[in-house]
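Pilot study result, target chain (262 residues):
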Amino acid sequence: MKDFKIAFDKVLEMVKQKENFAFTRFSDGELAIMKNRHVILAEDHFIDGNYKGYGKYTIEEQKEFNPSIHQFCRQALLEAYKHNQDRYYKGICTGSDPHVGSENFRWMIKLHNGDHENLTFANLLINSNYKRFIEELVPIFQDRKIVYVVNQNANVKNLPFDIHKCFLIGSNCMINDFDLADKVSKYLQNKQDLVVLCSAASLSNFIIHKSYKLNSNNTFLDIGSCLNPLLGLEGWKYTRGYLTSYWMNSGSPFGKQVDYWR
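Predicted structure:
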């Protein structure tokens, strides 16, 4: 049985000790793509398979996976998910996530051919662990060389640490910037002890998989939207409860949510 807090402790300690590893997230969006469902995040709605609902998504978050034309994206995602390597940690949706449920958790475990020590929580850096991410993990970045894969509309100058190298992405980056995974992996091929932060939706999975497989002497963290409030991106105020809980004291239950391995 895996523990949400202890799993974060492990990541924090590895970063502190400069032990290189990779953490890549297979959240609800990646789950839907691996299940080959049509996925759309549009300005005022989302589509997941046959379900359509209301949602507010800024240009940075908008995307589409169409199973009839984007199978290259799904195959790359499946390869990244099934890949096993020392200290290559894959965060998955657990049954405690209200958006997912235990049936999908079991599906992900089965797709992986069973539980594994390298499987962990997709929400590892957020929800009730987010406060620790901001207050304990982010300050360590001040003493490391940081590579950041981030949206072109982000302002990285307000971050509390310096950026050594920045790779910029646009909207629907998992499709439109698919080739960036090769560019990043080539850049990192002969480098070591860099910390690579990825805020690039499913493209983060491709980048981390290719780069870490080629050279495991760097650290990779799929941080999703964790730094959005510091990047001048307004969308975080509407779509991420764990962010509004911490930065706006919104009272969102996601700020206190503890994930369980079930």
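One observation from the pilot: The chain has a mean pLDDT of 95. A full batch analysis is planned for the follow-on phase.
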